[in-house]
Amino acid sequence: GEEWLGLVLRSLTGLYLAGGKPLEARTYGKELYEFDRSFNGNPFARLHNLLLVGEVYRVAGDINKSIELYRLAVERIRQEPQLDVVLTAIPLNGLAAIYLQIGDPTAAVKKSREALEFLDNNPDSLSEYVRVNVLSNYGTALWELSRFTLAESILLEALYLEERLRGYTATYFTITNNLAGVYFTLGQPKKAKAFFEIMLERAEKSIGRDTELFAMLLANLGETFSELGDHKQAIEYLEQALLIVETLFQSDDRRVG
Fold first, then answer.
1. pLDDT tens-digit map of 133-142
2. Where do the H-state alpha helices sit in the chain?
Protein backbone atom coordinates (compact mmCIF):
# COMPACT_ATOMS: atom_id res chain seq x y z
CA GLY A 1 0.00 0.00 0.00
CA GLU A 2 2.74 2.45 0.90
CA GLU A 3 4.63 1.86 -2.36
CA TRP A 4 1.47 2.57 -4.34
CA LEU A 5 0.94 5.80 -2.39
CA GLY A 6 4.45 6.92 -3.32
CA LEU A 7 3.83 6.05 -6.98
CA VAL A 8 0.58 8.06 -7.06
CA LEU A 9 2.15 11.08 -5.38
CA ARG A 10 5.14 10.95 -7.73
CA SER A 11 2.87 10.69 -10.79
CA LEU A 12 0.68 13.61 -9.71
CA THR A 13 3.72 15.75 -8.93
CA GLY A 14 5.31 15.00 -12.29
CA LEU A 15 2.12 15.53 -14.28
CA TYR A 16 1.38 18.91 -12.72
CA LEU A 17 4.98 19.99 -13.26
CA ALA A 18 4.93 18.89 -16.92
CA GLY A 19 1.56 20.61 -17.35
CA GLY A 20 2.93 23.97 -16.25
CA LYS A 21 1.21 23.93 -12.84
CA PRO A 22 4.14 24.34 -10.42
CA LEU A 23 2.05 25.37 -7.41
CA GLU A 24 -0.15 22.27 -7.65
CA ALA A 25 2.98 20.20 -8.27
CA ARG A 26 4.52 21.67 -5.12
CA THR A 27 1.50 20.63 -3.05
CA TYR A 28 1.88 16.98 -4.05
CA GLY A 29 5.67 17.26 -4.06
CA LYS A 30 5.64 18.29 -0.42
CA GLU A 31 3.51 15.23 0.43
CA LEU A 32 5.88 13.06 -1.62
CA TYR A 33 8.89 14.40 0.25
CA GLU A 34 7.30 13.77 3.65
CA PHE A 35 6.25 10.29 2.53
CA ASP A 36 9.79 9.56 1.38
CA ARG A 37 11.26 10.56 4.73
CA SER A 38 9.02 8.10 6.60
CA PHE A 39 9.20 5.18 4.16
CA ASN A 40 12.54 3.44 3.62
CA GLY A 41 11.89 2.23 0.08
CA ASN A 42 13.96 1.52 -3.01
CA PRO A 43 16.98 3.91 -3.05
CA PHE A 44 16.58 4.61 -6.76
CA ALA A 45 12.92 5.55 -6.32
CA ARG A 46 13.74 7.71 -3.30
CA LEU A 47 16.43 9.55 -5.23
CA HIS A 48 14.08 10.06 -8.18
CA ASN A 49 11.48 11.50 -5.80
CA LEU A 50 14.01 13.85 -4.22
CA LEU A 51 15.22 15.15 -7.58
CA LEU A 52 11.65 15.61 -8.80
CA VAL A 53 10.62 17.59 -5.72
CA GLY A 54 13.80 19.68 -5.95
CA GLU A 55 12.90 20.60 -9.52
CA VAL A 56 9.31 21.39 -8.52
CA TYR A 57 10.48 23.82 -5.86
CA ARG A 58 12.88 25.44 -8.35
CA VAL A 59 10.16 26.00 -10.94
CA ALA A 60 7.75 27.22 -8.23
CA GLY A 61 10.33 29.82 -7.18
CA ASP A 62 11.22 28.39 -3.76
CA ILE A 63 14.94 28.57 -4.44
CA ASN A 64 16.26 27.91 -0.93
CA LYS A 65 14.22 24.73 -0.56
CA SER A 66 15.27 23.56 -4.01
CA ILE A 67 18.96 24.10 -3.19
CA GLU A 68 18.50 22.19 0.07
CA LEU A 69 16.96 19.20 -1.72
CA TYR A 70 19.53 19.08 -4.51
CA ARG A 71 22.36 19.18 -1.97
CA LEU A 72 20.64 16.42 -0.02
CA ALA A 73 20.47 14.37 -3.23
CA VAL A 74 24.24 14.74 -3.71
CA GLU A 75 24.85 13.49 -0.17
CA ARG A 76 22.42 10.61 -0.57
CA ILE A 77 24.21 9.39 -3.71
CA ARG A 78 27.55 9.52 -1.91
CA GLN A 79 26.24 7.59 1.07
CA GLU A 80 24.13 4.95 -0.70
CA PRO A 81 26.31 2.17 -2.20
CA GLN A 82 23.51 1.02 -4.53
CA LEU A 83 23.47 4.36 -6.32
CA ASP A 84 25.91 4.91 -9.19
CA VAL A 85 28.20 7.88 -8.56
CA VAL A 86 27.46 9.20 -12.08
CA LEU A 87 24.00 10.15 -10.79
CA THR A 88 25.70 12.95 -8.82
CA ALA A 89 25.74 14.94 -12.06
CA ILE A 90 21.93 15.24 -11.98
CA PRO A 91 21.54 17.25 -8.74
CA LEU A 92 24.69 19.24 -9.58
CA ASN A 93 23.02 20.21 -12.85
CA GLY A 94 19.89 21.09 -10.91
CA LEU A 95 21.97 23.47 -8.82
CA ALA A 96 23.43 24.98 -12.00
CA ALA A 97 19.88 25.63 -13.26
CA ILE A 98 19.02 27.34 -9.97
CA TYR A 99 22.05 29.62 -10.15
CA LEU A 100 21.10 30.56 -13.72
CA GLN A 101 17.58 31.32 -12.52
CA ILE A 102 18.77 33.67 -9.76
CA GLY A 103 21.30 35.42 -11.99
CA ASP A 104 24.57 33.85 -10.84
CA PRO A 105 26.12 32.40 -14.03
CA THR A 106 29.55 32.11 -12.40
CA ALA A 107 28.20 29.64 -9.83
CA ALA A 108 26.26 27.88 -12.60
CA VAL A 109 29.48 27.37 -14.57
CA LYS A 110 31.17 25.91 -11.50
CA LYS A 111 28.39 23.37 -10.86
CA SER A 112 28.18 22.48 -14.57
CA ARG A 113 31.90 21.74 -14.64
CA GLU A 114 31.58 19.58 -11.52
CA ALA A 115 28.74 17.66 -13.18
CA LEU A 116 30.74 17.18 -16.39
CA GLU A 117 33.68 15.84 -14.36
CA PHE A 118 31.45 13.11 -12.90
CA LEU A 119 30.16 12.25 -16.38
CA ASP A 120 33.63 12.17 -17.92
CA ASN A 121 35.01 9.94 -15.16
CA ASN A 122 32.04 7.54 -15.19
CA PRO A 123 30.89 7.09 -18.81
CA ASP A 124 27.86 4.89 -19.44
CA SER A 125 24.64 4.94 -21.44
CA LEU A 126 22.92 7.17 -18.88
CA SER A 127 25.69 9.77 -18.86
CA GLU A 128 25.04 10.92 -22.43
CA TYR A 129 21.41 11.78 -21.67
CA VAL A 130 22.41 13.68 -18.55
CA ARG A 131 25.23 15.40 -20.45
CA VAL A 132 22.78 17.13 -22.81
CA ASN A 133 21.13 19.05 -19.98
CA VAL A 134 24.44 19.79 -18.27
CA LEU A 135 25.91 21.19 -21.49
CA SER A 136 22.77 23.25 -22.10
CA ASN A 137 23.04 24.97 -18.72
CA TYR A 138 26.82 25.30 -19.06
CA GLY A 139 26.57 26.95 -22.48
CA THR A 140 23.82 29.30 -21.32
CA ALA A 141 25.87 30.36 -18.29
CA LEU A 142 28.90 31.02 -20.50
CA TRP A 143 26.70 33.11 -22.79
CA GLU A 144 25.57 35.21 -19.84
CA LEU A 145 29.22 35.69 -18.89
CA SER A 146 29.91 36.96 -22.45
CA ARG A 147 32.17 34.00 -23.25
CA PHE A 148 30.49 33.66 -26.59
CA THR A 149 32.93 31.47 -28.53
CA LEU A 150 33.01 28.77 -25.86
CA ALA A 151 29.24 29.12 -25.33
CA GLU A 152 28.63 28.47 -29.03
CA SER A 153 30.86 25.38 -28.97
CA ILE A 154 29.18 23.93 -25.86
CA LEU A 155 25.63 24.60 -27.08
CA LEU A 156 26.37 23.08 -30.49
CA GLU A 157 27.67 19.96 -28.76
CA ALA A 158 24.48 19.79 -26.68
CA LEU A 159 22.33 20.33 -29.77
CA TYR A 160 23.95 17.57 -31.84
CA LEU A 161 23.90 15.15 -28.90
CA GLU A 162 20.21 15.75 -28.19
CA GLU A 163 19.36 15.31 -31.88
CA ARG A 164 21.24 12.00 -31.99
CA LEU A 165 19.75 10.67 -28.75
CA ARG A 166 16.15 11.87 -28.86
CA GLY A 167 15.57 13.88 -32.02
CA TYR A 168 13.67 17.15 -32.20
CA THR A 169 12.43 17.53 -28.63
CA ALA A 170 11.51 20.53 -26.49
CA THR A 171 15.03 20.37 -25.06
CA TYR A 172 16.47 20.51 -28.58
CA PHE A 173 14.56 23.68 -29.41
CA THR A 174 15.40 25.30 -26.07
CA ILE A 175 19.09 24.78 -26.84
CA THR A 176 18.49 26.12 -30.35
CA ASN A 177 16.89 29.25 -28.96
CA ASN A 178 19.87 29.92 -26.70
CA LEU A 179 22.34 29.26 -29.49
CA ALA A 180 20.59 31.71 -31.79
CA GLY A 181 20.68 34.16 -28.89
CA VAL A 182 24.46 33.83 -28.84
CA TYR A 183 24.61 34.71 -32.55
CA PHE A 184 22.27 37.65 -31.97
CA THR A 185 24.43 38.95 -29.11
CA LEU A 186 27.54 38.56 -31.26
CA GLY A 187 25.97 40.92 -33.80
CA GLN A 188 25.26 38.15 -36.33
CA PRO A 189 21.48 38.55 -36.89
CA LYS A 190 21.67 36.97 -40.37
CA LYS A 191 23.12 33.79 -38.88
CA ALA A 192 20.51 33.86 -36.11
CA LYS A 193 17.75 34.34 -38.70
CA ALA A 194 18.89 31.35 -40.77
CA PHE A 195 19.06 29.27 -37.61
CA PHE A 196 15.57 30.26 -36.43
CA GLU A 197 13.99 29.61 -39.84
CA ILE A 198 15.34 26.05 -39.97
CA MET A 199 14.27 25.41 -36.38
CA LEU A 200 10.78 26.78 -36.95
CA GLU A 201 10.20 24.28 -39.75
CA ARG A 202 11.44 21.42 -37.57
CA ALA A 203 9.47 22.59 -34.53
CA GLU A 204 6.20 22.78 -36.46
CA LYS A 205 6.59 19.16 -37.55
CA SER A 206 7.68 17.81 -34.16
CA ILE A 207 6.12 19.81 -31.29
CA GLY A 208 3.40 21.66 -33.23
CA ARG A 209 2.50 25.33 -33.56
CA ASP A 210 0.23 25.58 -30.53
CA THR A 211 3.00 25.53 -27.94
CA GLU A 212 4.78 28.19 -25.90
CA LEU A 213 8.10 27.05 -27.29
CA PHE A 214 6.95 27.56 -30.88
CA ALA A 215 5.64 31.01 -29.95
CA MET A 216 9.01 31.84 -28.40
CA LEU A 217 10.81 30.83 -31.60
CA LEU A 218 8.43 32.99 -33.64
CA ALA A 219 8.96 35.95 -31.33
CA ASN A 220 12.72 35.65 -31.47
CA LEU A 221 12.65 35.39 -35.25
CA GLY A 222 10.52 38.54 -35.28
CA GLU A 223 13.08 40.33 -33.13
CA THR A 224 15.80 39.19 -35.52
CA PHE A 225 13.95 40.60 -38.53
CA SER A 226 13.54 43.86 -36.60
CA GLU A 227 17.29 43.98 -36.02
CA LEU A 228 17.79 43.45 -39.76
CA GLY A 229 15.47 46.38 -40.51
CA ASP A 230 12.62 44.30 -41.98
CA HIS A 231 9.93 45.66 -39.69
CA LYS A 232 6.99 44.36 -41.75
CA GLN A 233 8.23 40.77 -41.46
CA ALA A 234 9.04 41.34 -37.78
CA ILE A 235 5.48 42.43 -37.03
CA GLU A 236 4.09 39.39 -38.87
CA TYR A 237 6.07 36.93 -36.77
CA LEU A 238 5.47 38.77 -33.51
CA GLU A 239 1.71 38.87 -34.13
CA GLN A 240 1.73 35.12 -34.84
CA ALA A 241 3.55 34.54 -31.56
CA LEU A 242 1.10 36.75 -29.67
CA LEU A 243 -1.90 34.92 -31.12
CA ILE A 244 -0.53 31.54 -30.00
CA VAL A 245 0.21 32.78 -26.47
CA GLU A 246 -3.22 34.40 -26.12
CA THR A 247 -4.92 31.21 -27.30
CA LEU A 248 -2.93 29.11 -24.83
CA PHE A 249 -3.77 31.42 -21.92
CA GLN A 250 -7.45 31.43 -22.85
CA SER A 251 -7.42 27.62 -22.86
CA ASP A 252 -5.82 27.61 -19.40
CA ASP A 253 -8.44 30.08 -18.12
CA ARG A 254 -11.27 27.87 -19.39
CA ARG A 255 -9.77 24.82 -17.65
CA VAL A 256 -9.44 26.73 -14.38
CA GLY A 257 -12.99 28.02 -14.69
1. 999 999 999 9
2. 2-18, 22-38, 43-60, 63-79, 89-101, 105-121, 125-144, 148-166, 170-185, 189-206, 212-227, 231-256
